Structures are given as C-alpha cells and as structure tokens.
Amino acid sequence: MGIVMRITALCALALLTGCASVSDREGGQPLALSEFDDVEVKVQDLGPGHVRQGAPSSPQTISQVVPGSSKSDVRGLLGNPANETNQRWWLYNINLPLDAEGDYLVCQYGVAFDPAGQVTSTEWRRPQCSSRYQELIQPDVPDVEEITLFSDVLFGYDSATLSSEGLKELDLAAHVVANKMQLERVVVIGHSDRIGSDSYNDALSKRRAEAVRSHLISKGINSYLISAEGRGSREPLIECQGNRITASLKQCLQPNRRVQIMIYGQR
Hints:
The structure is a single chain. By secondary structure, this protein is α+β, with helices and mostly antiparallel strands. It has seven helices and ten strands. It has helices at 59-62, 71-78, 127-137, 151-154, 164-179, 198-218, 247-252; strands at 4-8, 38-42, 55-56, 89-97, 104-113, 119-124, 143-150, 182-191, 226-230, 258-266. It has a four-stranded mixed β-sheet, covered by helices on one side. Strands 7-10-8-9 form a four-stranded mixed β-sheet. Strands 1-2 form a two-stranded antiparallel sheet. The radius of gyration is 30 Å and the shape is elongated.
C-alpha cells in the first residue's frame, strides 16, 4: 500500500531489534523513555512482534502510584510488570480509553525505583499518552447554561401565579433544559426588587422559583434534578434612587425582578 507507519521501539522488552541500549543514569536517576529510538515499518510488513498488547487500568488507579510507594504497592495497583526481572525500572503496557465506543490507546508506562525499592518517579512513553492520561484524571466540569426570565413576564406584579405569556416562555425554556444538554442538575433561583420587607421578598421569590420548578417538572424534567430557591432582593442587577414607591421606581427596579434557570450538564 506504500503507507509507512511509525512504530515505537520497545527496547527494554526486546520486541524489536536495532534499538539504542538503555542503562541507569548516574546517581540512580530514572531512565528516560524518550531516549528510545523509533523505527519505520510498512503496514504490509507488520508482524505480531510490532503489535503491543496492553491491559486496562483505570486512571484513578494509576494516579495512586506516587513517589514513596513500594514495589508491592505498585504490583497491587497495576499487576506484574512486563519486565519482571528489572529491579530499578518497571514497564507496563496500559490501555487508555479514547471514547465510549471502546477504542483505546496502548501506552507504555514506566515506574522507577530507588535501591530500597521505593518509587522515585513515573513516566509515560509518549506525550500523547501523557496528555490523554491527564484528560482522564481531570474531573468532568459540567457546562452551564443560564436562562434569565423577567418576573414581570412570568407573573403579575406581586404574584407567584404564572401568566399565559409566562407559560409560553417557560415552555421554550423547558425545551432547552430537556434537549440542549445531558442534565446533571437544574437550579431555579427567584429574585425580587427591594420594595417591601426582606422576609416578604424572600418568600415571594421562593414561591416564584417553586412555580417555575413545578412547570418544568410538568414538561418532563425529572423532579429530583431540579431545586428551587429564593434570594429576595439580595442580588440586585441595578440600583435605583429613591424610596417612595412610584411607577418610575418600579420600572427602574424591573431588571431585579427575575428568575434564573441554571442548567448544569454535558453537551
């Protein structure tokens, strides 16, 4: 086929010939896997010796191999090394998953020991293996989608009953919640303006959040995924001058009367 594939030479296991020799560095420092040579092999010439077979091991298990661990600790976590007789440098062939379809990357992982048999360092054979491992041990950070709806659209003034217009707006929001991401949780947060007492505003904002939560549940969102809370007037978007309740003050404070729908999940 004329296609050339670069194949990593695995000298320590003697799977390929013509590789550079490897020895401990001065002072007992770990070997450098990057010092291995590469070879080029045509696809049609590949034989069994060129195919490295790995074993599955979870990234969380691999991460427990740390400096100071004993050989028995490493063996208990990763099993027997491929080069059992080497006392200073153990090599493992590990399958790192690439996707949910079952594809994986076969990676060579080295563990170096001091004369007392304790781990001094670990190293991945290839940078792409190190990068994939780092991706796998990072915690999944959910995406966040925020929908903010003004309470004056959802409810009548000083009311927690959804209006017909508010129901239409929430139906659109429910579509986003249900279809845009694989849900982990949804938080509905009600906010009020500063007109009225703190206790009254807290209660009103909570009732409005609960009304929105109930409607989302009625549209098929699992109830255990949705929580509701009221924060009253403690998180205003804008500040308005004056304390006398007038139409202009109510209009100025309108952005503060709102309901946030925070959607957490994976896209």
